[in-house]
Amino acid sequence: MTADEKQVRRRRGASMADVARLAGVSGQTVSRVANGRRNVDEATRDRVLAAMREVGYRPNNAARALRSGHFRSIGVIAFELSSFGNTRTLDAIAAAATSSGYAVNLIPVLDGTPHDLSGAFDRLGEQAVDGVIILIEAHRLDEADVQMPEGMPVVVIDSNADLDYPVVDTDQAQGSRLATEHLLGLGHRTVWHLGGPEDSYAASRRLRSWRQTLTDHGCPVPPVLTGDWSAGSGYVAGRELAADPDVTAVFVANDQMALGLLRALHEAGRAVPGDVSVVGFDDMEEAAQFWPPLTTIRQFFPEVARRSVDALIEGIRTGEHHHQPVAVGTELVVRASTAPPRR
C-alpha cells in the first residue's frame, strides 16, 4: 500500500474490509478480533491487529455497545472530592476499572442535599454506563427523598444505609478498636478522642467503637471533641486538649487532624509521646514524615476499590447482586508518636 493510499484511507476512515484485505482474512475474523472474542488463534489475531494499526482502523464501540447491550463503562457518583479517603478511593476505582477493561465516568456532587443527589442519579440516565458506584456519606443516602437509580447495578462504598445493594467499606470499628487498645496496652488510664464530623458515617463508626472499647476495658470515657477532618480543626481541638494535664493519650479520627493536634501540643510544651501519645487514622503517605512520625491505622483503599468494582462487574454480568456487606480489614502501624505514660 502506497503512502498516498494510506492517507486517503485514513481521511475517509478505514473499514473492516480494508483490514480483512490487508491481513488476508475474512471480515468475520476481523469482527471477532475487534469484539475481543477468543476463538481466533494468536498468530491470526496479531496479524489482524497489525493491519488495524497500519490502516488506522478503530472499532465502533458505540455500535458494539448497541449490539451487546454493554458500554464497558461505569459511573461513579462522589461527594467531597477533596477529602483524602475519597481521593484515594477514586484513584483506586479508576485503576481497578481500567484493569478490568472498563472506563469510568465521574459525576461529582457538590452538595449533599437529596435534590442534588437525585439530580446526579438522573444524569446517570444520560450517560452510557453499565452500572454505578456511589461514594457518598450514609446519612445523605438515608434521606427518604433520595431516589436511587432503578434497573442498574449499584455498589455503595462507606455506608450503613438500609439499601438493597452491595456495600463495601473499610472495617471502621476494627481500626478504632486497634488504635484504642494500642494506647491502653501501653498503660494509659484512658484515651481521649478527636472525632470527625457528626454527619460522617465513618466518623460515627470510629467514635462508637472507641467508646465501646473503653467500656469493655472498664476505662473512663472522656468527652469527645469534634473536627471537620482538616488539620486546622485538629489544631483548634488540640489547644483544648493540650491545656488539660489529664490528657495522656489521644486517638484522632484521621491523620490530617492529628497533624494539627501535634502542632498544638508542641506549642503548649506537651512532648509527644513523652507527655501525650497520639494515634491517627488513614496512614496517608505524609504520616511517616510528621514529627514525630505518626502511629496510625492503615486503610487499604485499593482493596476497597477492587472489591467494589468486582461486585459491580459481577452484577453487570449476571444481573444479580449479593446483599452481604464487605468489610476490608485495617492494620495498626506503630511509629514514634506513642509510648507508655510518664510514671
pLDDT under 50 segments (min length 5)?
A: 6-12
Total count of helical runs of at least 4 residues? 13
Largest sheet: 6 strands, parallel
Over the alpha carbons, how many angstroms does the gyration radius reach? 26 Å
Shape: elongated
Helical content band: 40-55%
Quote the distance from N terminus to C terminus.
Answer: 86 Å
**Total strand segments:** 12
Could you tell me the mean pLDDT?
Answer: 85
Specify the structural class.
Answer: alpha/beta
How are the strands ordered across the major sheet? 2-1-3-4-5-11
Q: Could you tell me the strand content as a percent range?
A: 5-15%
Elements, N to C (H/E) = HHHHHEHEHEHEEHEHEHEHEEHEE
Short description:
The chain is built from 13 helices and twelve strands. It is of the alpha/beta class and 343 residues long. The strands form three sheets. Strands 2-1-3-4-5-11 form a six-stranded parallel β-sheet, with helices on both faces. It has a four-stranded parallel β-sheet with strand order 7-6-8-9, with helices on both faces.
